[in-house]
Write a structure and sequence with these properties.
about 45% helix, about 15% strand, single chain, alpha/beta, about 425 residues, seven-stranded parallel beta sheet
Length: about 425
């Protein structure tokens, strides 16, 4: 959804002026990974990338080397182009065709049952890359399965390992099975430092065995937002015209797409209830186009004419949706600090989010946003109606949320802290 780029972070070089060589183990297609690595490269550090999903070195143009290790059967996971079409070959297309007709997350159980063995199978390949690159640090940008792969590959090696924790690593994945819980614990034991995007996950990491004496860093959005890009204002693209939204319509956007832990079906089911009170509302679901389940939800909603679904959108289009939307809805059951939550707050859309612990670090219900039971369409409808009818709340939240992201999620402040964490690993 978001391209790499952002403000230049201030360098914190070593005493001899040298820069770090960092080997990232990540999904190179992730906008968060792309943006974070781009920042490291832009101050002169040397980045090498091992992608756990099939990808192209062009996605991270500053990387000195780029390798793919398709761990956890990612080689058959479909990727999508700007129009929502599957980009990869026949196997990925077949998987996508099956997946789009199953309940959300139905294939996750199969993948998670088989993936641990795949981690051990691929660890020697990553170990060979580590020995060839000779990095100062390995940074695994998620626990399953990047951190698990790196922890196994670095067994017996002296290279420091930094592990990023993303929103579902503990509350969803590590809770799914004893094997994943065990592998999560092994990863935390091998990690020399932890990089989390919310305080809740730091506490969960300690409970799962991460040593409290080891350094840890909470960086919202895993590196913060470029607030020169994500800001209120007039849209830079004709986003209303592109999506067929009347100029007088009141826009409610769900940027979360189709994930097993996000109740986008609840978002669509709530639409008709809202329209009974606010008939000029229009609902936009990003990343939902072309899915048979979504088509069925819309047909059953009774609000077909007020719902727009799109493929995955480029960063500027999502930003402009936040600029025209009165609110951004996140019906998520599991999360850390979603980037889309921070982006919506920065652009002035009222956040309406599932009532979970990590989101409460950002949203104070009734003051700078609204919280609801993400499994209850009626509760979501009540929250959306309240947000649309309460102009004072929206104005109060718009001002407060801009201050919050400037103080706590600005990339100019966040990324130098990550760099200092790196240097602490090298110098310790």
């Amino acid at each position: 959804m978001h391209a790499a780029g952002g403000p230049r972070m201030s360098a914190a070089s070593g005493p001899d002026g040298r820069r770090l060589r960092v080997l990232f183990v990540c999904d190179a297609g992730s906008p968060i990974a792309q943006s974070f690595i781009d920042q490291i490269v832009r101050v002169g550090h040397e980045a090498h990338v091992v992608s756990t999903y099939p990808g192209d070195a062009a996605t991270i143009p500053g990387a000195r080397s780029f390798e793919v290790i398709p761990v956890a059967f990612s080689g058959v996971s479909p990727r999508f182009d700007a129009q929502g079409a599957v980009e990869q070959g026949s196997v990925a297309r077949a998987v996508h065709a099956v997946r789009r007709r199953l309940p959300l997350g139905a294939l996750a159980g199969v993948r998670n049952a088989l993936a641990p063995a795949d981690v051990f199978r691929h660890a020697p390949a990553l170990r060979r890359i580590v020995r060839a690159v000779r990095p100062d640090i390995v940074h695994a940008m998620r626990i399953p399965y990047e951190g698990m792969l790196a922890a196994e590959a670095l067994r017996g090696e002296s290279v420091p390992l930094v592990v990023s924790v993303w929103g579902n690593d503990f509350t969803l994945h590590a809770s799914r099975s004893r094997v994943l819980a065990w592998m999560t614990k092994r990863t935390l034991a091998r990690a020399n430092a932890l990089h989390s995007d919310c305080r809740r996950d730091l506490g969960l990491a300690h409970r799962r065995g991460f040593d409290r004496a080891k350094p840890a860093l909470v960086l919202p959005g895993n590196g913060g937002l470029d607030l020169d890009v994500f800001r209120p204002g007039v849209p830079d693209t004709p986003i209303r015209e592109m999506l067929g939204i009347p100029s007088c319509a009141r826009v409610v956007v769900n940027p979360r797409g189709l994930r097993g832990y996000v109740r986008s079906d609840v978002f669509i089911a709530a639409a008709a209830r809202v329209l009974a009170k606010v008939p000029d509302a229009v609902f936009v679901g990003v990343g939902m186009a072309g899915d048979a389940r979504v088509a069925q939800w819309i047909a059953e909603s009774g609000a077909r004419n007020a719902i727009r679904v799109t493929p995955s959108l480029p960063r500027e289009h999502v930003r402009d949706l936040f600029r025209v939307a009165e609110m951004s809805v996140s019906p998520s059951l599991h999360d850390g600090t979603p980037n889309s939550l921070l982006e919506a707050m920065a652009c002035g859309a009222l956040p309406v989010a599932g009532d979970i612990e990590s989101v409460r670090e950002w949203v104070d219900d009734g003051k700078n946003g609204l919280l609801f039971d993400p499994e209850n369409a009626e509760a979501l409808a009540v929250a959306v109606i309240r947000g649309l009818e309460d102009a004072e709340l929206r104005e109060q939240a718009r001002a407060a949320n801009r201050r919050i992201v400037e103080e706590r999620a600005n990339a100019r402040d966040a990324l130098p802290r990550a760099e200092r964490l790196y240097w602490g690993m090298v110098r310790s």
